[in-house]
Amino acid sequence: MKKNNLQIITIIAMMFLYAMISFVTNLAAPVGKIWGDSFTDPIQAERMGMLGNLFNFLAYLIMGIPAGNILAKYGYKKTALLALALGFIGIGVQWLSGVTDSFYVYLTGALICGFCVCILNTVGNPMLNLLGGGGNKGNQLNLIGGTFQSFSAALTPMLVGAIVGESLVGKEIDDVNIVLYMAMAIFALIFLVIFFTPIAEPSKVGEAVVYERSPWAFRHFVLGAVAIFFYVGIEVGVPATLISYLHKTAGKGYDDATFIAGLYWLLMLVGRFIGSVIGGKVSSRAMVICVSTLAIALMGSAMALGNSVMVSLPTDWTFDMQEMPVAAMLIMLVGLCTSVMWGSIFNMATEGLGKYTPKASGIFMMMVVGGGIVPYIQSAIAAHDCLTSYIVPIIGAAFILYYAIWGSRNVNKDIKID
């Protein structure tokens, strides 16, 4: 097969790889709910149901900086293959948890999957940029990859919900084995494609780089890292708790609840598209001020209105409309706000870092652990009252708003960055 044809196949495989990042990540919450429901105490069930998500994101804290070091030492291809192998193993261990009926085996699988997606996130953007030849074409491929990622994020809870049905009662992880088999098959296929495809590596692979200072010396980066911590927590916790709210508090079917949570991720896709259109004209700072303010208003309104007002929302792909609390719609709309936060916060936090930017990226990967810690804190409150728990992401959004207005200014311009 000609090299160009192999490269096209690799690009297609990378698109599926992007999709697998969000597929594996967003599998943790709905599958965790199945495990959580096996605990008889409702408060314990809510907390245990988010433990898989916590372990998935805990891996970022452990692997964030090592992932960057692995990429620097071994290059794109070997790093990607390592990540794909871990993904296959992690999903396999989750499947094994159903065979052994062990919650702890499931948590181990979630942790291994976390290692996988952390490394994939580290290698994905630069590798796809390289395959595209850099410049506008490389950036275009990354945007397309992001579209696949958003669509997969929306599809995952919908798929699990469709398989589980209206109720979690009596359901076990074996009931979603088909989803796990699909994930393992895709990981294996992408592994083979990348293994047999020649991929050019950066000339600096294996070279050591000496840094006189650290990204932690920059105040705006430190505050930006905290903002990323809160952002990922908001992104994950908002739709995960929405499932609990609709299913356990509002009494809606689990399949309907997961479909509406999936619409949150679809709105993120819409928001990213809008952001890419206006991004050249609107600053990152202005964009984050706008969306964080709107997110606070939406969640605050949801808490205030609750079940007092009902609206019609689609609950399946045929757009069968059902009456739902207006709070569900308001929470769902937060997806439009979170869609542009990562890139905008990253831009503000790394502005003026120069040669320290790669190390800052590794630290950012560590701070993704917020996607496990913040939703777990929220779930502890949600065990008593789901809507009240949204005070947690509101606090996070308030910090992000503070960061955009004041904390993002670089006050360390005296540090040499070249």
Which key phrases capture this entry?
418 residues, mainly alpha, Growth Hormone, Chain: A, 2 strands, globular
Can you put this structure into words, describing what you see?
By secondary structure, the protein is an all-alpha fold. It has two domains: 1-208, MFS general substrate transporter like domains (Growth Hormone, Chain: A), CATH 1.20.1250; 214-412, Growth Hormone, Chain: A, CATH 1.20.1250. 74% of the residues lie in helices and 2% in strands. It is built from 15 helices and two strands. The protein has helices at residues 3-36, 42-49, 51-100, 103-131, 135-164, 177-195, 219-249, 254-278, 284-305, 326-332, 334-338, 341-350, 357-367, 370-382, 391-407, and strands spanning 310-314, 321-325. A two-stranded antiparallel ribbon has the order 1-2. A hairpin with a 6-residue loop joins strand 1 (310-314) and strand 2 (321-325). Helix 3 packs across helix 4 and helix 3 crosses helix 13 (357-367). The longest helix has 50 residues, at 51-100. The radius of gyration is 21 Å and the shape is globular.
CATH class of the largest domain: Mainly Alpha
Oligomer: single chain
Q: Please give the count of helices.
A: 15
- Average pLDDT works out at 82
Proportion of residues in extended strands = under 5%
In CATH, the homologous superfamily of the largest domain goes by the name MFS general substrate transporter like domains
Q: The CATH topology of the largest domain is what?
A: Growth Hormone, Chain: A
Helix percent band: over 70%
